[in-house]
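Good morning C.,

I know you're traveling, so I'll keep this short. The sequence:
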Amino acid sequence: MIKGIIFDIDGVIVDSEPVHEEALKRAIRTESANTVSVNASELIGLTLEDTVKQLGFTSEQITRISKKAEEIYVSLIQPGHVRHQIKPLLQRLEHSDLTFGFVSSASKQVCLKNISFAYKGKLNLVSADNVSYSKPNPEPYLKMLSIMGLKAKEVIVIEDSDIGISSAVKANITEIYAWPHALSGSQKYANAKAIISNLSDIHIIGKTLKEFSHV
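The tokens, ready to paste straight into the viewer:
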């Protein structure tokens, strides 16, 4: 029996990848006069530092660029980036018997900013700040299961990246749904139970949205 839903954040709660790309480009310009190619589709599922490491900067530059990119991102992301159905779903989950949480490879600062546009209530949150290993390691999802007090078979996961799906699979979660967006073309989603085009495609979510449509 499904008792909870775990949401990835970047790409699921907010359509954030283009904003991350712009923030990273601006941050890189503060460290280097040379043009560095950044492709938003290649950022999906990675931590910010892992992304910057691939661009050939020193460890000191990686730290500075990552910090600056986060600052710029927080200033750029807007309520209009929240994905369709997310805000009403989170509001209605508050009034249901389902518990829910958020798991991300981003910093707590970025996670809170993203979620704030869609939900203002008490959060079950696992960010990069409170795990030793980020996705695709299973630790983030195992930690969330512990917080929620649920077993792997009792939750649904909604992800937009193969890296995130791999993390959930390694945590023995099987009800994993891939929710693509405009920059998901490079993702395979081979280990997802299904690829959805709409949150209502997931039966328990469609039922929740319908039952609590008065909220």
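Safe travels,
E.
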